[in-house]
Amino acid sequence: MSAPLLEVTDLVVEYPGKGFRAKPFQALKGVSIDIQPGETVGLVGESGSGKTTLGRAVLGLAPVTGGSITYDGKEIGHLSRSQRRALSSEIQVVFQDPYSSLNPSMTIEQILIEPLTVRGVASGEARQRVATLLEQVGLPVDARSRLPREFSGGQRQRVAIARALALDPKLIVCDEPVSALDLSTQARVLDLFIEIQERTGVAYLFISHDLAVVRHISHRVAVMYHGEIVESGEGDQVTARPQHPYTQRLFMAAPVPDPDQQEERRVARRALMTTTVEG
Amino acid sequence: MTTAVDLPTNIPTPPVKTSLMRRIVRRPIGVVSLGILIVVGIIAVIGPYIAPYDPNKASLQLVLAPPSAAHPLGADSAGRDVLSRLLVATQVSVVAALLALVTALLIGVISGLIAGYFKGWFDSVSAWFTSLVMALPGIVVLLAVRAVVGPSVWIAMFTFGILLAPAYYRLVYAAVTAVRSELYVDAAKVSGLGDGRIISRHILSVVRAPIIIQSAIIAGIAIAIQSGLEFLGLGDTSVPTWGGMLSDGFANIYKEPLLMLWPALAIGITSIALTLLANVMRDALERTVLVRRRRRRAVATATGSIAAVTTSIGAVTGSLDVDAASAPVIRHDDDVRAAARAGDTILQVRDLHVGYGQDDGSTLEVVHGVSLDIRKGEVHGLIGESGSGKTQTAFAVLGLLPRGGHITGGSIDFEGVRLDQASEKDYTAIRGRRIGYIPQEPMSNLDPSFTIGSQLVEPLRKSLGLSKKDATDKALSLLERVGIPNPKRTFAAYPHEVSGGMAQRVLIAGAVSTDPDLIIADEPTTALDVTVQAEVLDLLRDLQAERHMALLLVTHNFGVVADLCDRVSVMQQGLIVETGPVRAIFGHAEHPYTRSLLGAILDEGPARPPLGTLLTKGGAR
Amino acid sequence: MLPFVLRRIASGIVMLFVISFVAYTLLYLSGGDIARRILGQNASQDVVAQKAAELGLDRPLLTQYFDWLTSALTGDFGRSWFTGQLVSASLSSRLAVTLSLVIGTTIVAAIVSVVLGVLAARRGGWIDAVVQFVAVIGFAIPGFLIALVLVLVFAINLGWFKATGYTPFATSPSGWVASVTLPIIALAIGAIASVAQQVRGSVLDALSRDYVRTLRSRGLSTNRVVYKHVLRNAGGPALAVLAVQFVGLLSGAVIVEQIFALPGMGQLSVQATSSGDIPVVMGVVIIFAIIVIVVNLLIDLAQAALNPKVRLS
């Protein structure tokens, strides 16, 4: 295998405790993960597992207390804001909430041009680029003069993807990007992610609570629980034949959309719960 | 693949950005108050030049002279021309108020931005300083300053500006703190924007309008305090001011009450104009913010909000063609399992329409004729995407539609009681005792100010008439039944002290506490983690079997439907499109919409192969 | 609960120290040559120096402040430079007048605001429109202007009330009521405008909460939910506004006392200010600061009683 694009080693993130002399809260307790160029690594976990914190640490939005994050061989865990800015054309983000991730008072064009002007792209060229980006994510060109509130959740998520693509990044951190979307919209947005990856070779760190979503998009999958990675491996193996008891619980807990299969799974889950309780 | 399948064909194009100014002048009150302020402003500039006399020239002959041709407003107690004094005083009073305003604005806004955006020590220091300044009544500080430096309008107003700064500081601080946690600010940081750019582009634009509104209010306060000080006789008597003139009028209230009228009018009208302007601006602004907030909630909760429905209606009016609306519901016959549960019908909904009254008097219909039968002891799933009207249907049955919502047609029959015609009083006998409700969001559905126990005991005493002790015992045994490890502790706890999963168990305990025959559960597991969801589903299944109650389960999750339901109805755009036993729907759905939903389920799809294999495949091709 | 109370009391005491020190420094330092101001321009240099020594003004600032502080802690705020009266004596005789005015206003404003605010939020329609109108007018017109109008109409034209003067409660309760009615109305209108508006807003907000629907789904009537659950949750924000209004009322009282010639703190402070009687001004500042800090502490305690999150954190 070639050198990883991103390598996270023994990462620790602590937040100061609330109140006087309170113990700091350890959101990540020594997490290691790597992503190859062009690869999707899925990160599964429940709320409070630390999966979002890991994404934010890679983006430079969470304080790194220990361990290292290297991107393309360079340490990026402790960069200053201005050093970090240079990375903006390398690492980008798509957030979960398509409502709060776009400034409601800016038009789609202003939103998409913003990262380009920071990079010093001339305005004529930038406008050209906006048209290409909109086309890439399947939005009509006349969307550029509209405000985010005129779009549905799925369309907003397409705008957010276009913004992430604006600077041709090599890695996009996707934090639950389809969780707020309806079932049918969710499938289409996921396919857009895959299509973009196959065309541009961008890598994804894809964070989700949903095993099915992660299975659909990830080459490799890591499972987080209480700030640690408990299992990782190839997508099919982790999402269909999990080894770790927690992943098994997670797998069994998700109801199958088929009454008869779900009945079987329910029985199996109850059996598993009794054995883990006894063991 | 990149065709925009989820793009509505006809996006309504509301005005992109209407400036605050334009929205103000569209309202009569806005125009009038703005007009008054402009006149006051003009007088403030030209007043000294158009004054017919020297405002300080006293004349013994004119002492308390009534209005005359030469002196249209008469003369004051020193025989000075009132009109001239009023014109000159306008300038002094306005400039003084502006001085206080600008001082407060500069200090408050800058420190609010710094403290709110960067936090750290500056935040703590300014928070402390703010509470210090606010611990003193303004006028007392002004009196102390006056005692030290003597009468000076300007120093007094500068000091007052400092005292007013917290009004801006708090406003800006709160706004900045809120914006700072918005994801678009994080996205801007990731895009490489510097702090200066983020503040000017994303933060100032949010606080600008509230600052303008606050300024109108602050200007009014500054005018009031400034004239108040002058009225007390603590100002510089050589300068004519509104407050000083008022004081002179008050001293002669028995001899010449008219003297008080002019300065009082000047102060009153200016203050009212400022307040009204602020109100008009706030109204104009709040309307847009309200819409935004509603829509956001629509996504956050995915239910219960009309906005979500409104958006989707706007998006689908083109595609909701006549034959779709009038097409018959596809009904599957009972299979063996469903027939085994077939008892009497407990709830019969016929051709239900639900609408929301709009500002313009029209009604926006969100449920377009839903018919539904729920049998005794069955679990009936109502499945659909956001905006399909499933939650609205559920609330209509409970008689708990949000403000503005009402049943516009059809009937709801609950064991012989016509719920669509039921009064609030009729419902009191039904809700709780006969029909229970399990909400979606566990936390927001418990009153944060009362203990969990008291929220369980209160309905038990009210609707079952239990004694306090009996109700407490029953609540404790219910908590134990729903799997809460330490019922006594949870009973005494406040909602914020328990986890979301525990809170949902408490809500389930509350719903079954009064032994209803039908429970309406609105997305009862959507807000929960998947492992907790599995436990809550188990609990619901056990309780349902134990108590033989019917359950109407509103959800968007096919897994949940497969786990619990006997029969299912599929909703799309305010209509039921297909209904039948759960196996028939999963096994041989007929309606294209049901099929497309089932097709979008990811669970059964193959996993993506590892990256390496993909590359070799690509190489081999 | 107890740690919370102790923390609040401690921070109040610290704040009082800071206010007293800053006020002392400003008043005594930047006042220029105090001894000369007392004695007048014609006094000789020697006499001025003697006076300064007599007042202790020739010592370092910190020593002076420490002296003032130790006597202040025993209730001795010094003597007026002009009348020679004990500052504490004149303060205490006037405090009762101001407090009866301000507390009376607060009670009236709180009751009226809750009634109006709840009615406006629940009934809507014309009641709401009236409340909105009163709110705008009450907020816009300065209290002293309202006071002047009241004097003109009810005291001078109609003669229903005395225009000026104060009758202590102990002398004649009915006389006391008659002497404070107009001032309280003048002060209360502005406070009601703000507080009623806030009550209306927070009741509307609380009514739209999910738990209201859930409680109703258990068979509780809407009225019961409103009076037990909604009002309690709406109380916090309303109390916060009432606290801010209280500070405003103290300011308002200074002017209103002047209009109705009530012998309160306001009148005292205006006299002391115009004559430059620093010890009296200092005493007034401290008394006002103590009142505000105590009231804020009480409001905080009330907030904690209403809101378990505040109490338990």
TrEMBL record, chain A:
Organism expressing this protein natively: Agromyces tardus
The protein's name in its UniProt record: ABC transporter ATP-binding protein
Residue ranges annotated for the ABC transporter domain, each copy included: 6-251
GO annotation, biological process: peptide transport; transmembrane transport
Entry's Gene Ontology molecular function annotations: ATP binding; ATP hydrolysis activity
Domain of life according to the entry: Bacteria
Gene3D superfamilies given in the database record: P-loop containing nucleotide triphosphate hydrolases
Similarity comment: family membership: Belongs to the ABC transporter superfamily.
Signal peptide bounds: none
A UniProt-annotated Pfam family: ABC_tran
Keywords from the UniProt entry: ATP-binding, Nucleotide-binding, Transport
From TrEMBL, chain B:
Assigned GO CC terms: plasma membrane
Domain ABC transmembrane type-1: 90-278
Compartment annotation: Cell membrane; Membrane
Domain of life, per lineage: Bacteria
GO molecular function per UniProt: ATP binding; ATP hydrolysis activity
Main location: membrane
PROSITE patterns: ABC_TM1, ABC_TRANSPORTER_1, ABC_TRANSPORTER_2
Transmembrane annotation, as ranges: 29-51, 94-118, 125-145, 151-171, 206-225, 259-278, 299-320
Keyword Transport: yes
Membrane topology according to the record: Multi-pass membrane protein; Peripheral membrane protein
Keyword RNA-binding: no
GO biological process, one term: transmembrane transport
Keywords in alphabetical order: ATP-binding, Cell membrane, Membrane, Nucleotide-binding, Transmembrane, Transmembrane helix, Transport
Alphabetical list of SMART domains matching this protein: AAA
Domain ABC transporter: 347-598
Entry's family note: Belongs to the ABC transporter superfamily. Belongs to the binding-protein-dependent transport system permease family.
The protein's name: ATP-binding cassette domain-containing protein
TrEMBL record, chain C:
Membrane topology: Multi-pass membrane protein
UniProt KW keywords: Cell membrane, Membrane, Transmembrane, Transmembrane helix, Transport
GO CC annotation, single: plasma membrane
Protein family according to the UniProt entry: Belongs to the binding-protein-dependent transport system permease family.
Organism: Agromyces tardus
Subcellular localization: Cell membrane
Domain ABC transmembrane type-1 intervals: 95-299
Name of the protein this chain belongs to: ABC transporter permease
